[in-house]
Amino acid sequence: MPGLETLALSVVAGRGARSEDEERSGWSHLLEHMVFKGAGARSARDIVEVIEAQGGQINAATGYERTSFQVRALKGGLDLGSAVIADLVQRPTMDAGDLAREIQVVGQEIAEAADTPDDHVFEMAQTAAFAGQPLGRPILGTDESIARADPQRLSQWRAALYAPGSLVIAASGAVDEAELLALAERDFGAASGQGALVPAAGDFVGGSRTLAKPLEQANLVFLLPAVGVRDPSYFALRIFAEILGGGMASRLFQEAREKRGLAYAVDAYSETYADAGVLGVFAGCAAKDAAELAKVAAGEIKGMAAGVNAAELSRAKAQLKASMFMAREQPLARAEQAAAQVLLFDRTLPPAELAEQIDAVTSAQIEALGAAMLAPGRAAASVLGPKGAMKAADAFQQALFG
Known about the structure:
This protein is α+β, with helices and mostly antiparallel strands. It is built from 16 helices and eleven strands. It has two domains: 6-188, Cytochrome Bc1 Complex, Chain A, domain 1, CATH 3.30.830; 207-401, Cytochrome Bc1 Complex, Chain A, domain 1.
C-alpha cells in the first residue's frame, strides 16, 4: 500500500474451534493464550516487549474456522514480526505451571462472557442453532473441558491446529514481496505436522434457549439457516441482511424503532462459515415489548421473502461495497481478508470481481433466498433478561411458521 509508514503481518491457520471434539472444546482458544506465555528463547514478557520496543503491537484471535496471529509495526518491522510469530506457532514452551494459571485466566474469561448479557445471548442462540456440533459449542469452551488440557496433549493439538498445510502468511502496508517470501522460507520453511481433521458439514438444528435474569433490558437473538461463504447466494445473503437491519434506513430500524418505538438497538447480520451460515437479528428492548418485537422481526423477514424494491436493493449494494472498500484501506483488515480468501478459495479475490458479484444480485435472488431460509421451518431463538420477556422465543417461531 504505497505511502504508508506501517505494516500488518498476519499468520493465519485455517483451523479453529470447529475442529475440536467435545473433549477438547475450548482448547484452540486456550492454546492461543498459552503460546504467548513463552516461545523460542523468549519469555512471556520478552514476546510483547521486543515488539513494543519497535513501536509495534502483537495480538491473536481464535474463531470457529481460523486462528490468527497479528503484528502491526512500523516500516522495517516485518523481520522481527515474522520471527516472533514463527516462535509462537512452532516453538511455544508449554510450561505446566503456566498452563495451570492460564486455565484459571480463561475460566475468568468464560465467567465474564456469561455475565455480559449481549455476549451470552449470542452464545445461547448459536448453541440452539447448531446443537450437538462444534459450531454449537462456545469458542471459549467450558471450565470442565479446558481443565482437561495438559502440556503434552495441548502440544499435540498445536501441531495439528497450526500444521503448515493450513497456514497462510499475509502482509500489507509498507512491505516488500521479496522480503516477505524470504522470511516465510526462513521462519516457516521447516514447519511440520499433520493438519487437524476437516469438520463435518454444519447442520442447522434450531430451537430456543431462554434464561431469566433480573436485568433492566431483554436481549433477543433470532437466527435462520442460511448459506456458507462459498455458496453462489453469499452476496444475496449479505444484501438481505443489509436491507433487513443493516442501518438506519433498514426495514427493522424503521419499523421497530422509528415507527413503533420498541427498541433502541435493533439490527440484522449474516454469519457465514465455509459450508453453512445464519441470518441473525439482535435486539435489546423492555421485557413488555419483547414478544411484539419478535413478531415484527418475523414479519419483516417474511416480507422480504415477498419482495424488495429497487431503491433499497441499490442502497444495500452501495453499503456493502463501501464497507468492503473501506476495510481494504486498513493494512490489518486487508491482510486478514487476503488470508481468509486464500484459505477458502485458494486465491485472493480482486475488489472489482467482488463488486461485480454484488452488483449482479437481483431482487428475485433475494426473494428466492428468503423462501429457502424459511422452507425448512426451523429457527433458533434466544432470550436473556426479565422473566416477562421469555415469551419472545415462541412468539418469533409462531409468527414465522404458525
